[in-house]
Design a protein that fits this description.
The complex is a heterodimer of chains A (441) and B (394).
Chain A: H1 5-12, H2 14-17, H3 23-27, H4 36-42, H5 46-63, H6 67-72, H7 80-88, H8 105-110, H9 114-126, H10 128-146, H11 150-167, E1 173-176, H12 189-194, E2 200-204, E3 209-220, E4 227-234, E5 243-248, E6 254-259, E7 270-281, E8 285-286, H13 292-328, E9 330-331, E10 334-335, H14 340-363, H15 371-395, H16 407-416, H17 424-434
Parallel strand pairs in A: 1-4, 2-4
Antiparallel strand pairs in A: 2-3, 3-7, 4-5, 5-8, 6-7, 9-10
Chain B: H1 12-30, H2 46-55, H3 68-71, H4 78-81, H5 84-94, H6 98-116, E1 128-131, H7 141-145, E2 158-162, E3 165-177, E4 183-190, E5 193-200, E6 206-210, E7 221-233, H8 244-279, E8 281-282, E9 285-286, H9 291-312, H10 322-349, H11 352-355, H12 361-373, H13 378-393
Parallel strand pairs in B: 1-4
Antiparallel strand pairs in B: 2-3, 3-7, 4-5, 6-7, 8-9
Helix pairs in contact in B: 1-5, 5-6, 5-8, 6-8, 8-9, 8-10, 8-12, 9-10, 10-12, 10-13
Classes of the chains: A alpha+beta (441), B alpha+beta (394).
């Protein structure tokens, strides 16, 4: 007992204490020194693991250096090199497997969106706006895949994918459902039934196509997308007739209107799209006529876990930058990270993020998007991310609100994830709706 | 609300006068800042708007010739009239702009410290900034008690007495003020005790560095101020036997005022959300009929009302006491949390429009989040609250 307190503490650490166990006992103790990130990565299948590592590297090399400028001056940077680099690295073609897309084959057939979600977290960790810039493309592309129409997939989706991956073209798609008078309405059933929609498609038999009129708003990537999946009701019909149309940039009458000024995720635009007698040929109908509502709802089932993953990334970005601040900042003779109250707060943040990641990955563990699971993951992850960002800002005191430290950017970015892809209130109702006859009747 | 119960020295008419004064100022001077597409208002108009605050007697100042000296925000009359007039002024102005309220508040706290100093001022500046904080946090109790020990962090700004002057060295961080102030009220270690100095902002050796792009409260300047061998005359020291009491007073006023601003921002958010909910139609009906919207706004209103009660309930008997310091720290911590929740819930009721700059909701959220983190966030205030309780029990 002549040892110092430090020596005794050292001996009592689990790793050293385990040395007193017999061989089999020691084998049952996991004392590997591994980061949280590495530990989680190892729980993934080989193919998803590969994408997670690749996305981390890409985000640090391509997104991190661009993030502060893109946030401060969203109209003053060129997004094309980033889009092109992402395309060449296969990040823009993850909704199909080789040779047509780039998703790892086996994991894709177990979970269509897990790979996108994993990539989304890594991108959003570095910058919410640039992550949205890259990932909104998948949202625009999803209606083509989920339409289930071979005509659409072969005629529209595959050519786009091949040009993207092989040529590295900086093109992207956008998804347009929201209208100025109908935001949340188009994301839930009861609202949909009462929605006052203005975007209308009128059939023109002599031209074998439709004339689109109306407006969409808050469309992510709407300003830069080369093609947009637009939902419109048929003339003199209600939302039941909603049909998805593929509209190409440059089509006469199709214009980008106002670019919104947002609190966060500023590197990606939120555009108003104006359709003034835009002619869309029949071949550009995505899936079947009047299947748009079902298609839209299913797209949301697939996209919500990805939005949750992006939110998780915002929270993780704030956490990582806050952790770095606590490592290098001294309060008196000690670094912040050495104070127990700071450690408690950091641990709480890490636990919250871990829980959110577990929920997202769990919600992705099936081939088809599951309404309640997707909605729940999105709500939990976005609320958690916002909470963690707040904790990070508070832990850094006055430094938390300085743009240079990157935490306030993550905080602003995270707030949007509680709103888009259906507000968190709408998503809660989506869970109830899904299990109304089984659990909540 | 019956505010008379908190203000024994004031009648209802007095309070109505203060509120009316702030409403008029906000309406006539501040609203025009928000004409046009500026997320934080057209800040180039700010100097003339702040000038109007001095003319109206809203902004306090050490200069006795100006009307705000006595009855402006944290003016000399605080000792006679208490917190409530300043809380009313700040929260009413913050309903329109939290940043301008913060400007006036920072000016007021620094002026009040000067007004309560025992010594005679070597000169009477019109605008002042308070330089107390170092590093990323205001002092903890141990440091307030003894600025020269690491409890947990000693004060590194030092005022050394040499012959007929003091030489000040060190850096103060996150100094909130109006633009281009005339002087700083600087707290520094002098010997083994706190000293408080009035320093001309144009004195040789002072370097100011803007902290850069910030989340919110952008109408208010925030700087790091470095003092490199700044020479000040002996009479620039405004305390007589140590400035610990002034440190406590400054912290109390700062936290109470920031709480008042947060309350104002929350009330502004609630009013805006109610208005939007009554005007916005979706699916053929007003969104205020939706239970989700009702829950969000009603919850926010409850948070804002509770926060206001808490801020107003702070009695103002002794601005140098540890009890008051603890109360104000607890109020800052709790009020910020309540107000931030109120604002974020109100923003949520706007849906996507709340996140855009057009309706001013995102500005409110940014402003209140800065207030939460600034000058002592909850994590660090908890330490202080605990230590003060322990100290009071001794």
């Amino acid at each position: 007992m002549n040892q110092s307190l430090e020596e005794r503490i050292e001996q009592l650490k689990p790793k050293n204490a385990a040395k007193k166990m017999n061989l089999f006992g020691r084998m049952l103790v996991d004392n590997r020194e591994m980061s949280l990130w590495e530990h989680d990565t190892k729980t993934l299948s080989w193919g998803v693991r590969r994408w997670r590592r690749k996305a981390l590297k890409f985000a640090r090399e391509h997104i991190r250096p661009l993030a502060p400028k893109a946030d401060l001056d969203p109209h003053g940077y060129d997004p094309r090199p980033l889009l092109s680099a992402a395309a060449r690295n296969g990040f823009q073609t993850l909704l199909l497997v080789p040779p047509l897309g780039t998703a790892s084959i086996l994991p894709f057939f177990r979970s269509t969106v897990l790979q996108v979600a994993v990539v989304g977290e890594e991108f959003a960790t570095e910058c919410g706006g640039l992550a949205l810039l890259l990932l909104a493309h998948n949202l625009g592309m999803a209606p083509l895949l989920l339409s289930g129409s071979l005509r659409t997939i072969i005629g529209q989706m595959i050519p786009f994918y091949l040009k993207s991956y092989i040529l590295g073209r900086p093109d992207c798609m956008a998804f347009a459902i929201t209208e100025p008078g109908a935001g949340s309405d188009v994301e839930e059933t009861e609202g949909g039934a009462q929605a006052k929609l203005v975007t209308t498609a009128k059939y023109v038999p002599e031209k074998k196509g439709y004339i689109l009129n109306g407006r969409k708003c808050f469309i992510s990537d709407g300003g830069i997308a080369s093609q947009v999946t637009v939902y419109a009701k048929l003339e003199n019909e209600g939302i039941e007739s909603w049909t998805c149309f593929l509209v190409k940039k440059g089509t006469p009458g199709f214009e980008v209107g106002r670019l919104e000024r947002k609190m966060g995720q500023r590197a990606a635009d939120a555009a108003e799209l104006i359709f003034d007698n835009v002619f869309v040929p029949e071949k550009n109908i995505v899936g079947r006529l009047r299947s748009g509502w079902a298609n839209n709802r299913n797209v949301l089932n697939y996209s919500r876990p990805v939005v949750g993953a992006m939110a998780l990334g915002h929270g993780r970005g704030a956490f990582e930058r806050c952790l770095e601040f606590c490592r290098k900042t001294y309060l008196g003779p000690r670094r912040l990270i050495e104070y127990q109250d700071v450690q408690l707060e950091l641990a709480d943040m890490a636990i919250s993020l871990w829980a959110a990641r577990s929920m997202i990955w769990h919600s992705c563990k099936q081939f088809r998007g599951y309404q309640s699971g997707s909605a729940a993951a999105k709500v939990f992850a976005s609320d958690t991310a916002y909470k963690v960002c707040n904790q990070a800002m508070e832990l850094m005191g006055d430094h938390g609100y300085l743009h240079a430290n990157g935490v306030e950017r993550a905080w602003r970015d995270s707030r949007l994830t509680q709103i888009y892809e259906g507000t968190n209130q709408i998503n809660r109702l989506a869970l109830i709706e899904h299990h109304l006859s089984t659990d909540f009747s | 609300m019956e505010k008379e119960s908190y203000t024994p020295g004031l009648c209802a008419e007095d309070l109505a006068h203060y509120r009316d004064l702030a409403v008029q100022y906000a309406r006539k001077s501040l609203l025009p800042i928000f004409d046009g597409e500026f997320s934080d208002g057209n800040l180039s108009l700010l100097p003339e708007k702040l000038k109007a605050a001095f003319e109206a007697g809203i902004a306090a100042t050490p200069d006795p010739s100006l009307p705000g000296h006595e009855y402006g925000i944290w003016g000399k009359a605080v000792d006679a009239q208490g917190f409530v007039p300043s809380i009313v002024l700040l929260s009413t102005i913050a309903q329109t702009c939290g940043g301008v309220a913060m400007c006036l508040h920072a000016q007021g706290v620094a002026s009040n410290v000067l007004a309560s100093a025992s010594g005679r001022l070597p000169f009477a500046p019109r605008t002042v900034g308070l330089a107390l904080q170092e590093g990323f946090c205001p002092p903890f109790w141990g440091t307030i008690h003894s600025p020269d020990i690491d409890a947990p962090a000693r004060i590194t700004t030092v005022a050394e007495k040499r012959h007929d002057q003091y030489i000040i060295n060190g850096t103060k961080s996150f100094v909130y003020s109006m633009n281009d102030v005339d002087a700083y009220v600087v707290f520094a270690l002098s010997g083994d005790e706190w000293g408080c100095f009035l320093v001309n902002s144009r004195a040789q050796g002072i370097e100011k560095k803007d902290v850069g792009v910030r989340t919110g409260l952008r109408a208010c300047l925030v700087e790091h101020v470095t003092f490199n061998n700044v020479e000040v005359p002996l009479e620039a020291r405004i305390d007589e036997n140590g400035a610990r009491d002034l440190v406590i007073r400054a912290l109390i006023l700062n936290w109470v005022g920031m709480s008042a601003i947060a309350v104002g921002i929350a009330h502004g958010a609630v009013a805006a959300a109610r208005k939007y909910a009554s005007e916005r139609y979706q699916g053929g009906k007003q969104i205020e009929e939706l239970p989700a919207i009702k829950m969000l706004i009603a919850g926010a209103e409850a948070f804002a009302a509770t926060a206001e009660k808490m801020a107003l309930s702070l009695s103002d008997d002794d601005l140098y006491s540890l009890k008051k310091l603890k109360e104000s720290a607890a109020a800052k911590s709790t009020v910020m949390d309540l107000c931030a929740r109120a604002v974020t819930d109100c923003l949520q009721s706007f849906g996507g429009y709340g996140y855009m700059e057009d309706y001013g909701m995102e500005k409110r959220l940014r402003d209140v989040s800065v207030l939460k983190s600034a000058s002592g966030s909850t994590t660090y205030l908890k330490q202080l609250i605990f230590d003060l309780e322990k100290e009071a029990a001794k």
